[in-house]
Amino acid sequence: ILDDISPLRTISAATMAEPVHLFEIPDAIQYRSSQSSGEGSPGHNEFRGENRPSGARITFSLNAEGLPRPGETQPQQAAPGQGFQGGFGGGQPGSAGQRRRGPQVTVEISDADGGVIRTFRSPVTLGVNRIAWNLRRDGFRRPSAGQQQQQQQFGFQPSGPDVLPGTYGVKVKYGDHEATGSVNVLADPRYDIPMTDREAKLAAVMYAGSLQEVVADAVERIRSTRTEVETVLTKLRGERQAGGPSELAQAGRQLNTALTDLENKFWSPPGSGGQRVVRTDNVVRLIGRASGSLGSTWDAPTQAQHYRLQQAEAILQESLEEFNRLFAEDVVQFGRRGSPAGGLASDTPPTLGPPARLPDRLASCAKASLRTAGSRGCRPSEVWSAPAAQPPFPQSRRATRSETTPRRPDAGG
After folding, report:
1. What Rg value do the Cα atoms of the chain yield, rounded?
2. What is the DSSP code string of 281-306?
3. Tens-digit pLDDT profile for residues 338-381
């Protein structure tokens, strides 16, 4: 699809001879689509043509040895705009083996302060290339059992929240060479949302993401400690076969059970659904509910959304208190007893805490509302009535139905 020929106006033998040349990037317009593509929406018989990827179109040329020429036989890749293989700055990961092969370019997006907010990679060829940035920030770290680290190793990095309208720096890097430029991100003209409201929404989303990253740190430490305990237990099994004591081994098994129970309070590990009753109130689920609600619009956060965040923070704080106690006492004690066997540190580890603390009354109210089955708990209207009980973000009015603007119907692809 020939939808942007502006690079042809400035292309020359000199630009093509540069190791990396970044052409001027046209303005990118944010928009929301109320309908996603797929067989379930609205029907499998609907024809959908190929549209250009949404977001900022980044066109650049490369001139370096080892780059394949366009059209040369290469590992199969996804169609343009579909995930990382097509050069889209976010989306669904494809085959790890396919993304792993071939030369790739690295793209960095920076804000007005120069801080890098988005980094992604894409396969490239000799000559002119075009990829797209989906106008989102980097995604937040999530608890994982190794899948996320593997995806990042293969070049896929999940995208996060939408950026605010403004000017952003773009850097394209290949090998030791790089080129820089900028792109203007324009707001969706169909929405009349004050910038202060969008800033408040982004602050709330970033806060929810920071809660999630604390959970990721906690889960990573739990899983690594459990592995270290298993290392000690493996060595103790050999000693026990030779007639050694089993008291330390029993303590190790009890500690691993406690670590597993603690992990289940933070999230539901892969495969846990068929082994035990999955907790519906674990921290990740609560953060996910808050994040999903916040990400549904660009409007200022509602009181209900603030309250969901406070519920998540209250349960996170409760879980972290148990986490810090277990590591400061049980883990350290076992490490000192098991240090001759090796594999576990005996020093007191640093404590983990949420990025911000809730007022005590709000925390207890949110916790009571979540824990009490069949009770209305503390309604948001009651929580927000007290002047001393302010949310962690500025309150803004909630948009009424009459203020809601129509969503853009999906044009395809």
Report:
1. 26
2. S-HHHHHHHHHHHHTT-SSPPPHHHH
3. 655 555 655 667 788 877 544 444 445 444 544 443 333 343 33
Determine the residue type at 87.
Answer: G
Phi, then psi, of 350 in degrees rounded to 5: -65, 150
104: amino acid identity, one letter: Q
Angle, CA of 282, 287 and 292, to the nearest 5°: 130
CA distances from 203 to 90, 324, 406 (A): 21, 27, 25
As a whole number of angstroms, the longest Cα–Cα distance in the chain is: 82
Half-sphere exposure of 406 (CA within 13 A, CB side): 3
SS (H, E, C) 98-120: HHHCCCEEEEEEECCCCCEEEEE
pTM assigned to the model: 0.75
Token pair listed for 269: 């590990």
Say whether 204 sits in a helix, a strand or coil.
Answer: helix
Helix (H) / strand (E) containing 184: strand 177-186
Task: Yes or no: say if 135 and 142 are a contact pair by the CB < 8 Å rule.
Answer: no
How far CA 82 is from CA of 33, 54, 77, 155, 159, in Å, comes to 17, 11, 9, 14, 14
